[in-house]
Amino acid sequence: MLLKFTTAAAAVLLSSSAFAHASITPSTAMAGASVKVAISIPHGCDGAPTDKVTVVVPEGFVSAKPQVKAGWQAEVATGDYAGSYEVHGQPATSGAVSVTWSGGSIPDDQFDEFVLQGTVSSDAPLAFATTQWCGTDSVAWDQIAAAGQDAHALEHPAPVLKVTAAEGGPHMHRDHGATPDMAAMPVTAGDLEITGAFTRATLPNAPVAGGYLTISNSGTADDRLVSASTPAAGISQIHEMKMEGDVMKMNELPEGLVIPAGGSVSLAPGGYHLMFMDLTGPLVEGGSITVTLTFEKAGTVDVKIPVGSPAAKGPAMDHSMHSELVTVRHGDLA
Ligand SMILES: [Cu+2]
């Protein structure tokens, strides 16, 4: 009797392990969030231990990086993304496209997890196609349910991270920035006109935000933006972002920014911007912050800057661009 029971229990264990799929934790993340996901390999391959695992990084999981894993070596393959993304105004066009862990061992009766960090730059679900090797044998968890198909019907489903809309209101169209009534009104100071101001809602715990606007000078003398300040941040600076060699760098402009006579200067993602650091609280989409700009000649002027979505690329009503762009916090640049 005892022997029979043991055999039956073993059979149950075997069949459940044979049906346990590779999975992902958490299974849901917010668009725009920087997240850590763990791909779980539930067993070896029918008796043989798993000694190698490859995870294909899905398009839209930007700046991916494996967590150090004791007993395993991680090899990162990099390549160009199909789309272009943005990390704090900095274009991100390439990065990790797959990660292979090798050198460890997962026996058939044990499981293990492989951790990746990255930024969710997609509104669509992200499938992390995963292959586990046991010597020369392999099992690929790479099937994706077709529209209307139940993923549970798949024999080897890929682990899928579901994506929810970014926080900050009912607007699903993150490209649209602030709501129309929040559009920044032009502000004048002497010969200067300031238009198109916007900033972006910050992700939870993000310590910094960028400010963007255009300054036109209709006068006959150059002016200079010398400083900015806002009660919403402990420190406000004037920054420039530019390529140095093949590295994108961000620097403070201690001399400020010249606004040439008869010309205009745009502060925009990827170039000049206002940098708000030590935020006193999160910037919430649909709200606004008041920023005081000080010019050498025109003096000081308050500009009400509306807060757009975390992915806003322009002020409200600018619907000209529809590529997927995502902001992450300043600290992620380092
Ligand atoms: Cu900056």
Structure description:
With 334 residues, the chain is mainly β. The chain has 2 domains: 19-164, Immunoglobulin-like; 174-316, Immunoglobulin-like, CATH 2.60.40.1890. It is built from 1 helix and 23 strands. The chain has one helix spanning 2-19; strands at residues 23-25, 28-30, 34-41, 50-56, 61-66, 73-87, 90-106, 112-120, 126-127, 130-134, 137-141, 160-164, 187-189, 192-200, 209-217, 223-229, 233-244, 247-252, 257-259, 264-267, 273-279, 288-295, 299-308. Strands 13, 14, 15, 16, 17, 18, 19, 20, 21, 22 and 23 form an 11-stranded mixed β-sheet that branches. The longest helix is centred in the first third of the chain and has 18 residues, at 2-19. The N and C termini lie far apart (64 Å). 36% of the residues are buried. The model is unreliable at 1-18, 168-182 and 317-334 (pLDDT under 50). Copper (II) ion is lined by residues 239, 250, 273, 275. Copper (II) ion binds next to strand 21.
Would you tell me the structural class of the helices and strands?
A: mainly beta
Parts with pLDDT < 50 across at least 5 consecutive residues: 1-18, 168-182, 317-334
N-end to C-end Cα span: 64 Å
The CATH superfamily name of the largest domain is Uncharacterised protein YcnI-like PF07987, DUF1775
How much helix, percentage-wise, in residues?
A: under 10%
Give the tally of structural domains.
2
Classify the oligomer.
single chain
CATH architecture of the largest domain: Sandwich
- How large a portion of the residues is in β-strands, by DSSP E? over 45%
Average pLDDT figure:
79
Major sheet characteristics: 11 strands, mixed
Shape: elongated
Number of helices in the DSSP assignment: 1
Give a count of the beta strands, DSSP E runs of length 2 or more.
23
Order of helices and strands: HEEEEEEEEEEEEEEEEEEEEEEE
CATH fold name of the largest domain, please?
Immunoglobulin-like
Radius of gyration: 25 Å
Query: Which ligands accompany this protein?
Result: copper (II) ion
CATH class designation of the largest domain = Mainly Beta
